[in-house]
Amino acid sequence: MRITIVLEPSDEGGYTAIAPSLPGCISEGNSKDEALKNIKEAVELYLESVEDDQVFTENSEIVELAV
Questions:
Q1: Is the residue at 42 inside a domain?
Q2: pLDDT reported for residue 51
Q3: DSSP letter for each residue of 6-65
Q4: Residue 30 covered by a domain
Q5: Which of 14, 57, 60, 61 is deepest in the core (most CB within 10 A)?
């Protein structure tokens, strides 16, 4: 999976990294490399499936949709 990341210099120094397609997925670092490493971890955690998130009734149907 490829995610677009926006890197912005921070007023306090370092960089802020934002994943615009994942609301609220933001990280930062003292360098571009550190910010990219941190946002990669944030994206992985953001997309990680949590067992509690998957509560379905017995009548539920699971369908895959390509976009």
A1: yes
A2: 62
A3: EEEE-TTSSEEEE-TTSTT-EEEESSHHHHHHHHHHHHHHHH---GGG----TT------
A4: yes
A5: 14
Q: How many domains does the chain have?
A: 1
Give the C-alpha separation, 26 to 19, whole Å.
Answer: 6
Locate 58 and state its tokens.
């017995």
Instruction: For residue 31, tell me if it sits in a domain.
Output: yes
In degrees rounded to 5, what are phi and psi of residue 29? -165, 165
- Given CA atoms 1, 63, 21, 26 in this order, what sign does their dihedral have? negative
pTM (2 d.p.): 0.74
Alpha-carbon distance of 25 to 19, in angstroms, equals 6
Half-sphere exposure for 40 (CA within 13 Å, toward CB):
8
pLDDT digits (tens, 9 = 90+) for 23-40: 999 999 999 999 999 999
